[in-house]
Design a protein that fits this description.
Blueprint: H1 2-16, E1 19-24, H2 30-46, E2 49-54, H3 59-71, E3 76-79, H4 88-96, E4 101-104, E5 118-121, H5 124-137, H6 139-147, E6 150-156, H7 162-175, E7 181-188, H8 193-207, E8 213-216, H9 219-231, E9 241-246, H10 249-256, E10 262-265, H11 271-282, E11 290-292, E12 297-299, H12 303-306
Parallel strand pairs: 1-2, 1-3, 3-4, 4-5, 5-11, 6-7, 6-8, 8-9, 9-10
Antiparallel strand pairs: 10-12
Helix pairs in contact: 2-11, 3-4, 5-7, 8-9
The structure holds alpha-L-arabinofuranose.
The site of alpha-L-arabinofuranose has 13 residues, from α2 and β9.
């Protein structure tokens, strides 16, 4: 009886606190670090107990983490899937256990759409379109196109991930009406600076001065590539026009230094919206199936003015 009296109120309190299991992709980029911080801060602010797991860019680790959240009977599972496919079995397990799943940042490709309740994140296809639209309108590139071909090299994100697939798709959708614009090389840089540098070195070795433009699926790969371009004795932002995605502080610094020409925004600050979805799901309130993050485009000439306002 004493035990029940002693633990009774504590147990009641613990039960009132929402428990969220979150499986993060990893720590591959400046964007991802900001995203993790946003989620941790928002959970703390809302008094939500966060069980956080870092998958180090491996799907098998995410599946393990989700299974462990199910075993711990968390109230909600949220995750940012490293790749789009291969999620059905583990999501069915979550559904059977009655645990709602919220997709954050990236989506999954599953036949049974009842396996997740809400998807919060950017429209990656639109980001790819925005990068291409900026490029075809950029005066120095227009001049090049007037004279001849515009040779583009592309650094793709993680193979099989939603942002890599969609950003490629959106970019190509705009360029298909631009016969002068050619993607001459395209390879994954896995969303990291180190890989971005390594693959750009290979592009430069193979194509040299033929390269007019670099399109990088994120800023980190662009920043790595900038180093490779400089080491090859070329001027990033001038000899090679560079457009990338995320608009992290590192990209603004590169733009202010004249080494990056444009960054398309992809906001990692998803924590507050995620916590509000989690609270609504637990309260049994209806939640939107899809919430698209609002974002802008930052060409180099806006960088110095915008930099002090950047939060990530
Ligand atoms: O899913 C969002 C992407 O993942 C960001 O653009 C990239 O920087 C991150 O690693």
């Amino acid at each position: 009886v004493l035990l029940i009296l002693a633990f009774g109120p504590g147990l009641a309190l613990a039960k009132d606190k929402i428990v969220l299991g979150f499986s993060q992709v990893g720590a591959e980029s400046e964007w991802r670090t900001a995203n993790t911080q946003s989620i941790k801060d928002a959970a703390a602010k809302e008094g939500i107990t966060l069980k956080f797991s870092d998958a180090q860019q491996k799907q098998e680790n995410q599946i393990k983490a989700i299974r462990s959240f199910i075993a711990q009977r968390v109230d909600v599972i949220a995750f940012s899937p490293v790749v789009e496919t291969g999620w059905e079995p583990v999501l069915r397990e979550a559904k059977r256990a009655g645990i709602p799943v919220v997709l954050t940042d990236r989506s999954v490709s599953v036949k049974d759409e009842s396996l997740w309740v809400s998807f919060l994140g950017s429209d990656f296809v639109e980001e790819g379109r925005r990068a291409a639209k900026w490029l075809v309108d950029y005066a120095p590139v227009k001049e090049l196109a007037a004279k001849g071909e515009v040779n583009i090299v592309e650094l793709q994100g993680t193979v099989g991930s939603a942002p890599a697939i969609d950003r490629k798709k959106g970019f190509e959708e705009i360029l298909k009406n631009q016969p002068k614009f050619k993607i001459i090389r395209s390879q994954t840089g896995d969303f990291t600076r180190a890989k971005g540098k390594e693959v750009m070195e290979a592009f430069l070795k193979a194509e040299g001065k033929k390269i007019n433009v670099l399109y990088a699926h994120n800023d980190d790969m662009a920043i790595g590539a900038i180093q490779a371009i400089e080491e090859a004795g070329l001027k990033p932002g001038k000899d090679i026009v560079i457009v990338s995605i995320d608009a992290v502080k590192g990209a603004f610094e590169a733009m202010i230094a004249g080494k990056l020409n444009c960054s398309v925004e992809c906001s990692p600050l998803l924590g507050p919206q995620l916590m509000s979805i989690v609270k609504d799901v637990v309260a049994g309130k209806p939640v939107p199936r899809r919430i698209v993050t609002e974002e802008g485009v930052f060409p180099q000439e806006t960088a110095a003015k915008e930099f002090p306002n950047r939060k990530y």
